[in-house]
Structure prediction request, 652 residues.
Amino acid sequence: MPQIRKDPLVNRWVIVATERARRPASFNDSIPTDTPVDQCPFCTGKETNLIEQYDEIRVLHSINPLFNPEGGFEKSRHGLYDVVNNCGAHELVLETQDHVANIADFSLQSIAHVLKVYAKRIDIHRQNPLIEYVLAYKNYGVAAGSRAIGHARSQIMAIPVNPVRVHNKVIGAKRYYESHERCLMCDLVRQEIKDGRRIVSMNQDFIAIVPFAARFPFEVTIIPRFHHHDYALSLSGHEDQLAQIMKDVLTRYKKYLNDPAYNYMIQTAPFKAMATIQDEYHWHIEIIPRLTRVAGFERGTGFYISPIPSEMAAGYLKEE
Amino acid sequence: MPELRRDPVVERWTLIEVATSKPATQYHREKKALQNPDICPFCPTKEHLTPSEVAAVRLDNSQPNTPGWSVRTFPNKFPALADREYLNKEGLGIYDVMSGVGAHELIIETPPHQQQMADLNDSEMSLLMRHYQERFIHLAKDKRFKYVMLFKNKGLSAGSTMEHAHGQLIALPMVPKYVLEEIHGADHYYQINKRCVFCDIVAQEVQDKERIVVENEKFIAFCPFASRYAFETWILPKNHGHDFAKADQATLDQLGAILQRVLKQMKSTLGDCAYNFYLHTSPNNWGDLPYFHWHIEVIPKLTRSVGFEWGTGLHIVPTDPAMAARELRDNS
Prediction:
């Protein structure tokens, strides 16, 4: 019998179609593609628009920026519609000088370095009062929306408006804190450790779980076991542990899901609300393997139909 | 240069590449995976391969589960939700769970395997809309269900594995998040302006003209100012109405006509692309809602969502809605 589960943070329901569960290999039908190395625009020496170099990691302006650091902030209206211009920033983080596609194949030290660069870029954009949010994220593989170039990279987007998905998480976190005087994610971490069935990986500072109400098969959330609302402000001292758990999860994807496309997104607290949500909000990283397609039901309702229960997905990812 | 636009109903920002807009021809076309009609369980004479029908349009008075139907509805063999009597709710620590009680029906929209909704004529569309409404009303009467979601997936990348034209109904034990967000946004607007925000959108779109795809006496189809997807098209009744179930036959006739036009124009502009559409209407037994306005949203599947969209909820739209509407109009 199918089950309907609710995500406690954003009140989103997910239908878990237990009777349709499939083996993990049967999800991934995308074939990894690549350009020849000599045509890679991201290998050393061919990059343009360099902003800053952090040892082997280079940060560039995107060639087709969606947000632009030039010019000020302009608001206008068109009848009942509101418009603002795209002030902000859109940066590309080239994670390696070598033509390596998947960050899962990096050394722990190199991954930790990439994670530190995210924090540095977030802190730089934080100083611009027009910026409401900075998202550090990765599209890996064509099905995840990336161009077919096998050179590991991620993106930093600084935006001048409220990101609705993070905003909904802030609202959920505040609502929970008001009734319990405790952080929801701290409670969630305690319950997940006690339960154990949805844990994919765990170390001293972090836990990686398949969320109870996962939207997608093999979706994973990495949550710090310490409370902090801001990724960049709290990374220091934890970067090696975060690198270890990221590498572990992404290597498990590669091994058990046949090198799928994936996205990951760092969900840190929005800047403007910061002073008031330090106790309530708890930063985390969402990782979504792109194995299924979003259809009319999901688009129309905002609810998801997951073809595999979270416990079973975590079980497959834990297989030795 | 891209610009950020805000949807006036749910106040959701979207990023539209206005200056460097991408025309229809530059989108990747899905390779059509042709299915062998001989093994299609939705074709006439294969009725025994599906669960028993619960309703059908049979103009020749033929027997249930035999050929002769024009539209045929049966429960999904692989339902997302099961039709059980008891709705069991429980809390597991900080988590909430309920049993998956609901209904999931498939509506086969036309007998010929290759025929798409875009190919139907006005009288076939009229019969189909009437049938959609009858099934919707039937499921909405069930006290266990709070909302009935009517939707369609066409094409593999829109999530459909079956080629034969079909729509779906899923009856849910709770009101969908997106519908609630629209209702809350519309209620908020109504409290300030004392007008329905959707009626105001219709008025502005009629005045602006540039985003209109097609209109008829009772409906307007347009690419929304703050679209989330390239070539996204909404169909709104021109007159205020909160409940699809209350639409009369004349309205259903016009709905069928405009929906078919939109799909036909998409087919000729975007080369038989995959798409989804779904109906947003007032939840079951909510009474009259002066601020809510039922409508259909049609979304061609042309792009892949990226990490930025998952992480922020801001959509990136490569085509200006005015350009999309113009291209769709030019192909009528």
Q: What stands out?
A: The mean pLDDT of chain A is 90. The CA atoms of residues 189 and 225 of chain A lie 7 Å apart.
